[in-house]
User: Which sequence fits this backbone?
């Protein structure tokens, strides 16, 4: 089965350069916008390395700085009790009386913030399940308390699905809740719960959660109130490429509107891959790329997991399509540090967060963890200066000098500029080792 005449299986072995049917240089240089049909054409035909080249060129135009950024924050999941039943979630507890169901009080959250400040953190990302037992006073009291106790900590909190449920719980319009929370200290709104906007996908993976259009409406309200937000997409479950393109199309449209009409907009786009462990969705059958049939939407009966190739492919295409989003984050939390580093060459200009705590993705089996030192090294080894930023992507600290996090623990100056540079001596040693291995193979 094909869509718009293209085979939906990406070219896994294609090495030859693909000649797009349109002028890709115009897209990279900002003279034209990538259309949805062109995005699909590239997805289906262009080799990954070629897409990476296009995306890297576009990133250079949009983010020509000599640095790449990261933020130090802490994910605080204030409750795991949730009315929704997302099939990709291993974190929520639907029963408030479950032995491991919890809601944090102000003191527990303050303690987490003190620990964050001790390591140089600047913001919290606070999200929860959607807990109907919590009154609006819980949130207002918490926000006002954080602002009073920690006036320099940026509060980035409560995703659109939470606001839609708050509206139901408190019988109040979303706009009014946003205004009240803003008055108490809420600064920006994270893009959690975006998943895939398409109803046919969303209704199957996120029962009990807001629709895609409601998600976008919450963010537009936030933009009108001057609150910056971020946007997300979850890939590698039951969606097909048409659903992803629809998701990106709606984001680009809303961002166009916000940039033209509102005092705030989306600051960044982040996509990540579904992590199956411990989730109900993992019980579905998996698509087998070797059986020769293209993946297609089948009412959610089959899951097509996304590997590193698919992740990078969508990253590069997102970079080319979302020309009105300045920042794209690397998703090393789900892809690991090596693919996270590679992401810097496929459209990402930001390494996201040095996270002190992460509960949601780790509940689904992903346990990658990077220190500030490691994130700085990844950025520097990739050829940029590491720089700590805030939620508005303003640089707080550039790490040029010897006291940079990735340099300060080295007792002696490094004899080589980069650990992975291969000297002529190394190359000769590798070559002779390789020759002796292949000689052994031949003799077996
Ligand atoms: S993903 Fe969020 S909204 Fe969905 S069940 Fe988990 S905690 Fe609830």
Assistant:
């Amino acid at each position: 089965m094909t869509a718009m005449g293209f085979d939906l299986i990406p070219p896994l072995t294609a090495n030859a350069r693909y000649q797009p049917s349109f002028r890709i240089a115009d897209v990279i240089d900002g003279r034209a916008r990538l259309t949805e049909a062109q995005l699909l054409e590239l997805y289906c035909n262009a080799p990954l390395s070629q897409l990476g080249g296009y995306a890297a060129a576009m990133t250079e135009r949009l983010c020509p700085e000599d640095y790449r950024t990261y933020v130090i924050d802490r994910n605080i999941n204030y409750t795991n009790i949730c009315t929704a039943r997302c099939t990709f979630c291993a974190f929520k507890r639907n029963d408030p009386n479950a032995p491991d169901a919890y809601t944090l009080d102000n003191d527990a959250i303050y303690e987490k913030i003190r620990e964050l400040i001790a390591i140089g953190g600047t913001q919290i990302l606070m999200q929860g399940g959607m807990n109907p037992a919590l009154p609006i006073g819980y949130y207002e009291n918490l926000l006002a308390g954080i602002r009073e106790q920690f006036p320099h900590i940026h509060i980035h909190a409560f995703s659109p699905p939470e606001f839609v449920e708050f509206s139901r719980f408190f019988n109040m319009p979303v706009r009014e809740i946003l205004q009240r929370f803003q008055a108490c200290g809420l600064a920006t709104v994270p893009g959690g719960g975006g998943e895939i906007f398409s109803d046919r996908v969303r209704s199957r993976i996120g029962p009990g959660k807001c629709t895609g259009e409601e998600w976008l409406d919450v963010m537009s309200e936030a933009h009108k109130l001057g609150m910056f937000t971020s946007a997300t997409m979850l890939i590698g479950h039951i969606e097909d490429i048409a659903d992803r393109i629809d998701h990106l199309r709606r984001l680009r449209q809303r961002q166009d509107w916000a940039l033209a009409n509102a005092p705030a907009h989306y600051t960044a786009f982040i996509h990540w891959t579904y992590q199956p462990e411990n989730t109900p969705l993992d019980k579905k059958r998996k698509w087998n790329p070797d059986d020769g049939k293209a993946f297609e939407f089948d009412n959610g009966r089959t899951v097509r997991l996304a590997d590193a190739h698919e992740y990078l492919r969508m990253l590069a295409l997102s970079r080319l399509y979302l020309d009105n989003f300045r920042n794209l984050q690397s998703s090393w939390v789900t892809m690991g540090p090596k693919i996270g580093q590679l992401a810097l060459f496929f459209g990402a200009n930001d390494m996201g967060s040095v996270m002190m705590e992460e509960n949601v993705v780790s509940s689904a089996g992903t346990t990658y963890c990077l220190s500030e030192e490691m994130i700085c090294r990844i950025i520097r080894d990739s050829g940029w200066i590491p720089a700590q930023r805030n939620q508005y992507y303003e640089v707080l600290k550039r790490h040029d000098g010897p006291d940079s996090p990735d340099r300060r623990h080295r007792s002696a100056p490094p004899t080589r500029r980069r650990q992975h540079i291969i000297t002529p001596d190394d190359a000769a040693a590798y070559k002779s080792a390789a020759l002796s291995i292949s000689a052994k193979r031949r003799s077996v």
